[in-house]
């Protein structure tokens, strides 16, 4: 059994880091090394994110609710925003994933025995 916070740490955060890193490199002109240092991964991981080998999945890249927060995080990073504001935006994104049931869908995909119509743990 995996807890929602484990799902976030194991699946959600790597996908979000991948999206942020890709945007920093491809849209903001950051080097892979600089983006890696900012998001806390290796340059090789950034290379894999950009090539689509690791991290982000199409679902995350095409979800407007997620992209709204990701874009704001990228802008905060690129504008040298206050780390507290960046952390706050990450937390708001994670809370939205729980509120909208997106985390529940992911959790169900990993642990099919979970009845998402009955489980309300993330909403309590």
Total count of strands: 0
Computed over alpha carbons, the radius of gyration is 15 Å
What structural category arises from helix and sheet content? mainly alpha
Helix content: 55-70%
- Compute the average pLDDT: 88
- Label the overall shape: globular
- Number of distinct helices: 7
Residue windows where pLDDT falls under 50 for at least 5 positions: none
Fraction of residues in β-strands = under 5%
For the sheet with most strands, the description reads: none
**Please, what is the oligomeric state?**
single chain
Order of helices and strands: HHHHHHH
Summed up, the domain count is: 1
Span between N and C termini? 19 Å
Description:
By secondary structure, the chain is mostly helical. The protein has one domain. Helix 1 packs antiparallel against helix 2, helix 1 packs across helix 7 and helix 2 packs across helix 3. The chain is globular. The mean pLDDT is 88.
Detail the topology: elements first, then pairings.
Elements: H1 4-26, H2 32-39, H3 43-51, H4 58-61, H5 64-78, H6 83-99, H7 102-110
Provide a short characterization of the protein structure.
The chain is mainly α and 124 residues long.
Label this structure with key terms.
mainly alpha, single chain, 124 residues, 0% strand
